[in-house]
Design goal:
This protein has about 725 residues and is of the alpha+beta class. It has six domains: about 80 residues; about 110 residues, 2-Layer Sandwich (Beta-Lactamase); about 110 residues, Beta-Lactamase; about 70 residues, no CATH class; about 160 residues, Histidine kinase-like ATPase, C-terminal domain (Heat Shock Protein 90); about 120 residues, Rossmann fold (3-Layer(aba) Sandwich). The chain is about 50% helix and about 20% strand. The strands form five sheets. It has a five-stranded antiparallel β-sheet with strand order 2-1-5-4-3, with helices on both faces. Helix 10 packs across helix 17. The protein starts with 12 loop residues before the first helix and ends with a helix.
Amino acid sequence: MDKPLVIGVTRKLSAVYASWTRATFIFSGLYGVLIVVCALGMIIYQRRQLLYNNLVTIQEAERSRYISEITISKLILEERMLNLQLSEEQLSLALNASKSGIWDWNIKTGKVYFDANYFTLAGYEPDEFPHSYDEWEKRVHPDDVVEARKAIEDYMTGTRESYDAEFRFKRKDDTWMWIRTQGKFFEYDENDSSLRFTGMHTDITESKEAEEIFHESETRLSLLSDNIPDGVVYQVDTGTDGTHRVFTYISGNVEKLHGISKESVLHNAMMLYGQVIEEDIPRVAELEAKAIASMTPFRAEMRFRLPSGEIRWKLFTSAPRRLDNNHLIWDGIGIDITDRNLAIEERLKIEQQLLHAQKLESLGVMAGGIAHDFNNILTTIIGNAELALVRMKQESPGINNLRKIEQAATQAAELAKQMLAYSGKGKFVVENIDMNCLLEEMLHLLEVSISKKSTLRLNFDPNLPAIEADATQIRQVVMNLVINASEAIGDNSGVISITTGCRECDKNYLKNIWLDENIKEGPYVYINIADTGCGMSRDTLAKIFDPFFTTKFTGRGLGMAAVQGIIKGHRGAITVDSEPGKGTTFKILLPASGMPTAIVNSDSHTADDWKGEGKVLLVDDEETIRDVAEEMLREFGFTTITAYDGRDAIKIFKENSDVDFVILDLTMPNMDGEQCFYELRKLNPNIKVIVSSGFSELEVTQKFAGSGLAGFIQKPYKLSVLKEAIQKILVV
């Protein structure tokens, strides 16, 4: 195999390195310069490129900013135009809603500009409506032209601070509408032609009509409220807290009902509120507070003291309401209810009196029935005791026992008398008496019966008419009241006054007393018994005539009940006036008789040995009374036949035509004494009849008035009473 040809050249190594180093150095220098040049070129290029880019960026930014500003300005302009459009629409809507129109008057030229709303209000088309003030003024109501001009002149001369006027304006259809005009001067520069008078007209026809209707309603309300006979219509503003009181309206009749003028009340509410009685204020304030809390109406009755001093009752009905300013308004009416309350009080008083009278009547019937039966028993006891005393020898040891029996029975009879007095059926001996004489005769007895610290004063009317009364029972009434007066004075010094007089009593006076069905109008003798003692409370006064009621520690409690019964039995009345610490006054009214007075307590006495003769028919349903009365009559020398009731008496009387007189009991079964009497008179019109009863002589004589009754004896009766009654009819 052929090997390659190798040719070698030999040189000195240093020479070789020297030439290579030089070339390398040159090349390196050129390369370095080239690199520097390239670097500088790159730097210059990049700088220029950066400057160019920045310039472009700046230009683009400026352009964008410009475009943005234009866009924003355009948007702002569009928004403003939109807002302006909206404002115009809102203004138009507002003007339409308020029925208003704008006007612009050039003072220099006299021309007036009106907007579209104005034409709509007046009913004109724009080309139909004049645009000068003079032509416009011709459509103002003739009665309002002067006032319209004066309003402008006053504003222009400075008399008025603002231009505000109301007048009527003619529409196109010749109807009138009310316009309110408001305006202001505007001066745009010093040129007079620029002086403008601009404002707004508002159609206030509806409000004027409403105001007229309200005025008519207010006038009508005023007429109605002023003509309410007993009522006051009012409106009160009590402020936000309900304490400040101002009358915003009150009817004119406040002067008639409260004695103060309407103007005074409107200027000073306290003139009316100050009349309220102090005791009623807390109660009314509480009702007002409840009404405010619930905002519901309230009713309250209160008393007012008028300037004259008179006290009147008022009923206020009022309703609270709140205004927008939070003021509390009360609308209401006050009615004078004094007469109504007085009528109610009178009705309640009459009802109480009727209830009291019914209670007394019921108890009176019971007491009368008990007393009647009691008297029958006592008649037997007393009669037998007297017969025994007559028939026994005076030296007999039983005489004292019989007298004690008679004395005890007599005391029991006195108790029965009180029971009859309470029932109103207890008058026994009725006669015409002089009250002054009766009281003078009692003076010594009264003086010794009262406390030594009590002074008795008498004040008698010398021209006193007589009364028909039982002197014994009237004495009992006076004694009872005087002793009570003395006890009311107690250990203190005091005065008891007794006053007599006569007065004419009509219905108005009699309605204030304890009424009885028998009380009638006419002249009455009165006895006033007044003391300066401790007085009585209302509770005590309400019970004073109740049976068994007493303020004393002891006693039966029949005292005042018996007093009322006695007065009732005399067809009289009694009143009581008393207050704690101010004493008590009793007034007794007894009907005047007009007859001459008799000597009080005039009794006729006959000899004890008197004897009679003849036949007597004795009628009584009680066997014991028949027995004892028969013995009494036999003692007087009479022959007696007896009957147990009215029917039996008629039968016996038919069989005994020789009967001289009849003693007839009033209360019997089957046929009572009254029926029997008239049957006997049919059989014999001349027969003499003596009626016997536990009730009063007045009760009996009224039943037999004009019938020819011969006599009356009160049970329980004694021998002497029976003998006296028989002697009277035999003498006649």
